Amino acid sequence: MISRLSFRGCNCYLIESEGKRYLVDTGTPGNLKRAREQIDSIDGIIITHGHYDHCGSAVEIADHFSCKIYAHRDEHPYLEGKADFKFEGFVGNFIKRLERLRPMEHFRAHDVESLNLNIVHLPGHTPGSIGIVVGKEMLCGDLLRVGRKYIMAGETVVKPSSRNFNWNQEKYIESLKRFAQLDVEVIHPGHGESVRIDRSLINEIIKRLER
Ligand SMILES: [Zn+2]
Ligand SMILES: [Zn+2]
């Protein structure tokens, strides 16, 4: 079961599987109050990738619920503050400045692959980006975004993650190809609405990126 929570920074979800409840992503720093209002208990926190807007509140929420934080091992150096992500362009610089204003607390994570969940490693946006498959649905982190065709207007569209924020664009495209092979019908993205998705749509996005 997947439910969406209302946190600041990114979409955060609660998943229940085999009697365990996990919080997936935590938004920017300062979401503990929202977490306390919306969650009774959790068995752990899973981070889809180490960007500030997804793991900024991880430490405060983990401390409150006395639970562990899990992420892909390729992401661990970033979470521990031993490596830095790539942020380029106007928006990238803005994000960097925002992060300095309210820095997140770094932390040590446990290996997400030790959990009894269907975790798919999808490197590219960051080295240790993951998707979590629940039935035919997937929490896809920032692999894909859902938004409007134009700024604030137009039909709902599925968009690839910006090259300015992707750690490795080639690996990112490979991960999209891997994702297209999965039996997933609905995505729950880190930003935007949950939507139905089909292989032809993903293939179209891949084709556009490869041009
Ligand atoms: Zn991201
Ligand atoms: Zn994000």
What can you tell me about this protein's structure?
- This protein is an alpha/beta fold.
- The protein has a single domain (2-210), classed as Metallo-beta-lactamase, Chain A (4-Layer Sandwich).
- It is built from seven helices and 13 strands.
- The protein has helices at residues 32-38, 52-55, 58-65, 76-79, 89-101, 169-180, 199-210, and strands at residues 2-5, 12-17, 20-24, 44-46, 68-71, 110-111, 118-121, 130-134, 137-141, 144-150, 153-160, 186-189, 195-196.
- A six-stranded mixed beta sheet has the order 1-2-3-4-5-6, with helices on one face.
- Helix 6 packs antiparallel against helix 7.
- The relative contact order is 0.15.
- The model has no long low-confidence stretch (mean pLDDT 94).
- One zinc ion binds next to helix 2.
- It comes from Geoglobus ahangari.
- Keywords: Hydrolase, Metal-binding, Zinc.
- This is Zn-dependent hydrolase.
- It holds the Pfam family Lactamase_B.
- Its cofactor is Zn(2+).
The percentage helix is 25-40%
CATH architecture: 4-Layer Sandwich
Which range does the strand content fall in?
25-35%
Annotation, overall tally of beta strands? 13
Mean pLDDT over the residues: 94
Q: What's the quaternary structure here? A: single chain
Shape: globular
Number of domains: 1
Largest sheet: 6 strands, mixed
**Radius of gyration, in angstroms, nearest whole number:** 16 Å
Keywords: Hydrolase, Metal-binding, Zinc
Protein name: Zn-dependent hydrolase
Domain Metallo-beta-lactamase: 9-191
InterPro entries: MBL_Glyoxalase_II (IPR051453), Metallo-B-lactamas (IPR001279), RibonucZ/Hydroxyglut_hydro (IPR036866)
